[in-house]
Design goal:
Blueprint lengths: L5 E6 L5 H12 L2 E3 L2 H10 L3 H7 L11 E3 L13 E3 H18 L2 E4 L3 H4 L6 E7 L2 H12 L3 H23 L11 E4 H21 L2
Parallel strand pairs: 1-5, 1-6, 2-5, 6-7
Antiparallel strand pairs: 3-4
Helix pairs in contact: 1-8, 2-3, 2-4, 6-7
Amino acid sequence: MTKKFAITIGRQLGSGGREIGREIAVRLKISYYDKELLQIASRESGLGKEFFEEMDEKKSHSLFGGIFDLRNILAEGYYSNAFLTNETLFKIQSDVIRSLAEKQSCLFLGRCADYVLKDLPECLNIYISANLSDRIKRISGLQQVTEGKAREIIEKCDKKRAAYYRFFSNKTWGAASSYHLSINSSVLGIRETTEFILDFAEKRFGL
């Protein structure tokens, strides 16, 4: 496949977005990036992976706008400033996303990739939601917890992802206007939702 493009997927926890994203990447034979971005950002910046994990979309963001003191961690090199803010860490991660998208066709899961790649012409931004009852059943099964606990996990994750997206993009997470396609995986199921998105992507990029 010679045409270069990017697909970004934002998703609700329990919607099957990760499974759908992986399958789409495999079927289109493009690179897939989720948590791998944290390791790449760590390697490229020379910073510990834990800094990016702390800033990640699933973490608590009470430290938004905070400052990490790196004077005893960083050697001379990548940054002369001894302090890093969450905004700086996000910029490093964003630079990695843009760099990868410039080199090859990619699918990015979460991490405001739709916002980061807003100036990329050949980009398809997708948001996957699902009915709460289906999300609860899925997380309950995947994490081996009660449905009550699964609901609690989902509610906390939704709040954190919404806060992460709003903080860094100044937009509303899940709002249809932020995406090219917003789809509820409960309507068609995971398999057929994957097929629908694949068909949409192939038409979008003329594949």
